[in-house]
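Following up on my earlier thread - several people asked me to post the actual chain instead of describing it. Fair enough. Here it is, all 401 residues.
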Amino acid sequence: MSGLLGAAVILLAATASAGPDRDWSASVAIDAPDALADQPVHIRLYGIPAGRAVTVRLTAAAYDRSQWRSQALFTADGTGTVDLDRAASLGGTYSGVDGMGLFSSLVPPAGDPDRVQFLPLFPEAAASYEVKLTVWDGRRAAGGRVLHRIWTGAGVTHQVLTPGGDGLDGVYFAPPATAHGVAVLAFGGSEGGNGEKYTAALLASHGVPALALAYFARPGLPGALRDVPLEYFDRAITRLHELSGLPVVLLGFSRGTEAALLSAEAFPRWVRGIVAYAPTDTVHAGYPSGAEAWTLHAAPVSPGTRLKAVVPLLAIAGDADGLWPSAAAALALGGSGARVLIYPGAGHLVGTFPYLPAGVRPTHPLTGAELDMGGSRAGDAAARRDGWPRVLAFLGAPTAP
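Reply from S.P.:
Thanks for posting it. Predicted structure:
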């Protein structure tokens, strides 16, 4: 049991003797029990004896069916109400006032929360995931609600692209209405695979067509970040334009920012902007081989090559990045028309959308090495909450705040 969760259990047990009355139940009011996974919800509890200490617990299943949970201790006010947007958590997996703290502070059933990330089923497999909220009066369940956190909103469709059939490995998410503005090509970094499907699904739910792209460490693709042809990204840009009928913004994370900046310069026809999370302003060597990571027209792109933004750029970084100096790189890339967001206390995992907790010392999926991403879970969560609406606004999303 993690230390945070263990402390919350002690607090929960301590409330078991608080008062003799057991005939009350809590009413749970939630403004949007079925909401997009990147949207906040407002939770209020009613009908609690005034001054009563209660524990609120959240549980959700990850893709491997492990039950993640969070909890916080509150004291009901004089009207018997606990408003999570106003009431301070007195202990548990988070402390202080944070209306979405239960979501951002979910921890695994065992092990160090800083070593793992909460990952529900991918959006193409499940349109939403379920979250259960329970109010505890000591060891007695005194009320609860079920929420659904939605990846693909009503009418959003997806199409799987394969190397054999399409020359690409990705999933395209399309909004229900004819889109205007831009489409987004989203891809990650040295972890490989296709971890940006959650992001792409949410973008489509906000009215922005999006293609989540894998470019190595998948069947039919290079096995490592080595000699990846930039023409592959050009093919993806063109395919996304054909599917959506729109110009394209590239959204890259970490090493993916190299591919985004290089591709925008080499293949500018349809590219209208870049969102760069935890960026670099210099080409790095392949990982883990140390050879060249990228090729262009069959020639290697030399490590050390300086990168530049040739289209409008939104660069987002944390000032506590433990992998590389992404804040300095973001500032170096920021020229005329560029927007740069630097978040204090955030690390390499500064993006993308909020309310999906991730540890800051994960194990690299390809090498098994422990990585120090820098920052903290709380710092990264705060950065995502502030940064994500700004990304939606940069993209001109119809539902941007």
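The helical segments are 3-14, 101-104, 163-166, 197-205, 231-244, 256-266, 326-333, 377-395. That should answer part of your original question.
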